[in-house]
């Protein structure tokens, strides 16, 4: 099981140090689950330092594809690797809907991050409009195809996919366990990688979602900002 906390644009360096100190004490000795936190860029250094002697990993929330170059405001995956960051989220739906991320640019970022030696959690998922129009499978299939074209066999072990229906993110509405299971099965039929579910996962619904055969973990937004609720989800995962 893999549980990743996407902090989005929350928690600066001070709050990050305090959170990581409490989280590492709270999760000490927990087996059967790999735990990742994804702080904003300015807090990565502190998170890496605070969690260095633990099993907890630190991922960025995005990465550019190039090693270096004239890309003002972008962050090189090689530089992330150099500072001890283990991986990156790529193509979160907020990147797609608010910042112009496309299947093509997502594929470049995934390729760059894997080349740099990072792990990647690549995000896919349909909007409400697409689900209502019966296009969920087509959309997710297209997104997964774009990812699969850039992932070489030897890098597959550093890739996970997060299925996050856009209508479930930050809304309090989760996909039903059956809806999640159907899409996870579809993704796994194309790519043999762990598939995480994301979208309003909370301590109260985590166990049921994580007990589905093709749900290998979860990507948590809002509930990852609080040590107690994030730890409770990690504990549910360790029991699943
Ligand atoms: P949420 O966010 O858990 O707050 O719905 C999930 C995500 O955006 O990754």
Written overview of the protein:
The protein has 240 residues and is α/β, with parallel strands linked by helices. It has one domain (2-239): Aldolase class I (TIM Barrel), CATH 3.20.20. Helices cover 42% and strands 15% of the residues. The protein has 10 helices and 8 strands. The protein has helices spanning 13-27, 44-51, 77-82, 93-98, 103-115, 128-132, 136-148, 177-190, 203-210, 227-239; strands spanning 2-6, 34-38, 57-60, 87-90, 119-124, 159-163, 195-198, 217-220. An 8-stranded parallel beta barrel has the order 1-2-3-4-5-6-7-8, surrounded by 6 helices. Helix 8 links the parallel strand 6 and strand 7. The longest helix has 15 residues, at 13-27. The radius of gyration is 17 Å and the shape is globular. The site of 2-phosphoglycolic acid has 13 residues, from strand 8.
